[in-house]
């Protein structure tokens, strides 16, 4: 269950990162509020997951989910373009997240 909590925490990291972009530097109140709520939920869920998962495992998985998810969301929502080299590193990050999960 704590892995599920950690995954949801990572997904909320994507929510706050993307909503921060939509907030246009915190000038749009509705998106600013979504950003803050997303941050709080993400941190609370991460804190909950670390009650039983080692921080050295939970934190890199959390940031990795956030990083990969934000890259994908940026491509879908904002038309971000990635070079082939960047894609290679995103794939390596995803493989690393899966490797941490499988070996812990």
From TrEMBL:
GO cellular component entries: plasma membrane
Protein keywords: Cell membrane, Membrane, Transmembrane, Transmembrane helix, Transport
Domain of life assignment: Bacteria
Subcellular location as annotated: Cell membrane
GO molecular function: transmembrane transporter activity
Transmembrane portions of the chain: 33-50, 57-78, 84-100
Annotated membrane topology: Multi-pass membrane protein
PANTHER family cross-referenced by the UniProt entry: GUANIDINIUM EXPORTER (PTHR30561:SF0), SMR FAMILY PROTON-DEPENDENT DRUG EFFLUX TRANSPORTER SUGE (PTHR30561)
Family: Belongs to the drug/metabolite transporter (DMT) superfamily. Small multidrug resistance (SMR) (TC 2.A.7.1) family.
Name of the protein in question: Multidrug resistance protein, SMR family
Organism of provenance: Lentilactobacillus hilgardii (strain ATCC 8290 / DSM 20176 / CCUG 30140 / JCM 1155 / KCTC 3500 / NBRC 15886 / NCIMB 8040 / NRRL B-1843 / 9)
Taxonomic lineage of the native organism: Bacteria, Bacillati, Bacillota, Bacilli, Lactobacillales
